[in-house]
Design brief:
109 residues, mainly alpha, rod-shaped
């Protein structure tokens, strides 16, 4: 029985398979390059500018609203609004300074 040949002979390497593997490898490399994250450039600067603007406007408007609410309940008309505005500006600038001093490789909080 050991003298018998197997039913199938092993198939040798085919040039078509090699070409297909090469094309698949090239396609994977192109796809990885296309999906690579862009951490620098104009997009990052645009996002940073939008974050600064949002922090500034959010702090000021949030302070104004909270100051107005304190004024409406306490009856101290201009003072709560002014204190809230001042605190909103302080919080906004604190957030902007924290963002500016953060290392670029850190993830956003």
């Amino acid at each position: 029985m050991s003298d018998e040949k197997p039913a199938r002979e092993p198939i040798g390497e085919d040039a078509r398979i090699d070409a297909l593997e090469a094309r698949l490898k090239a396609a994977r490399e192109r796809e990885n390059e296309r999906n690579k994250p862009r951490g620098s450039g104009a997009d990052a600067n645009y996002r940073s500018g939008n974050r600064v603007l949002a922090d500034l406007l959010g702090g000021i408007l949030g302070g104004l609203v909270l100051g107005w609410l304190v004024d409406s309940f306490a009856g101290t008309m201009p003072w709560g609004l002014l204190v809230g505005l001042f605190l909103g500006i302080v919080v906004a600038f604190r957030n902007i300074f924290r963002m500016a001093n953060k290392r670029p490789d850190q993830d956003p909080e």
